[in-house]
Amino acid sequence: MKLQVIGDPVLHSKSSVIHGAMLGLLGLDVPYTAHVVRRGELPDYLRWARDNGVTGFNATMPHKEDLLPLLDGIDPAAQTVGAVNTVCLRDGKWIGFSTDGGGAVAALEDGLGIGPAGLTVALLGAGGAAKAVALALAQAGAARVYVCNRTLARAEELCAHDPLGRLAPAAFDVDTLTALAETSQLLVNCTNLGMAGCDHQFEDFSFLEALPRDAAVFDAIYHPAETELLSQARRRGLKTLNGLPMLVNQAVLALEHFLDRPLERPAMAEAATAALNYN
Questions:
Q1: Alpha-carbon dihedral of residues 118, 122, 126, 131, nearest 10 degrees?
Q2: Are 72 and 120 spatial neighbours (Cβ–Cβ below 8 Å)?
């Protein structure tokens, strides 16, 4: 059994640390390594992986959507999301799963004690991560998830994938964000604004003032540990959470797929978080 994470770039990934810690806790001597796979190289990689004993891999940018037509089967949840981040070799066939959304829901419950049921959510962004998180929140019972994006057509396209009718597209300007914040109990950032290495930042944080005092702000970014969005929210007395718990929890779910069995998720998450803090 061999496990990998693929992408381009990927050598900076924390997945090896996370999975190494969890596999160690389980007493399993299973290698988990990072492997650079460039766009266009996926067919060759899948053949190579099968021939070299790779039984599962995680996929990061730019492969989450490109993998879909190359796999032998796709989990229904991943099919709805339109992307995979976890692929397992089952009976000689590559099967794809998505754990990003489930990881986000688990992170909210573990890190903030928040369950999505009944919440109104303002979610920023309309990319792959935003789609997975928005659909997972809707599936977990959120009353309404407003998908805010600078290109409204992309938000509309994302919302069209919601079979429950709980997603609604919205603009990204400060007036719209302020109006939505007034009735939202949770704000989720799935853009790269404020990410380390990204030159772009929120132009105006005043919309945070409109959030109810008991609202929470969740930023899917984990580097830096506190983005400017989270810093501004914390100064306003709001509950905050960065993306590290999401990263850990989606990895726990991925390992369950790799091993094809349930795990003691709190123990796995604790081991992974401790390893990240050490490294």
A1: -20
A2: no
Q: Residue 221 to residues 77, 178, 194, 230, 257: CA-CA distances in angstroms?
A: 23, 22, 8, 10, 24
Can you tell me whether residue 193 is helix, strand or coil? coil
Q: Under a CB-based contact definition with an 8 Å cutoff, are residues 161 and 225 in contact?
A: no
222: alpha, beta or left? (left if phi > 0; alpha if psi -120 to 50): alpha
- Within 57-140, residue ranges assigned H as helices are 76-81, 100-112, 128-139
Q: How far apart are CA 146 and CA 7, in angstroms?
A: 30
pLDDT per residue as tens digits for the range 220-236: 998 889 999 999 999 99
Phi-psi map region of 113: left, alpha, beta (phi>0 left; psi -120 to 50 alpha)? left
- 56 φ, ψ (degrees, to nearest 5): -175, 155
**Buried (b) or exposed (e) across 221-240, using 16+ Cβ within 10 A?**
bbeeeebebbebbeeeebbb
| Per-residue pLDDT tens digits for 133-174 | 999 999 999 999 999 999 999 999 999 999 899 999 999 999
Provide the edge-to-edge strand list for the sheet that holds 73-74: 32-36, 2-7, 54-59, 86-90, 93-97, 73-74
Residue with tokens 């790269």: 192
110 contact partners, CB below 8 Å, separation of at least 6: 245, 249, 266, 269
End-to-end Cα, the chain, rounded Å = 25
Residue 119 β-bridge partners: none
Q: Active-site positions?
A: 64
In this model, does residue 69 exceed pLDDT 80? yes
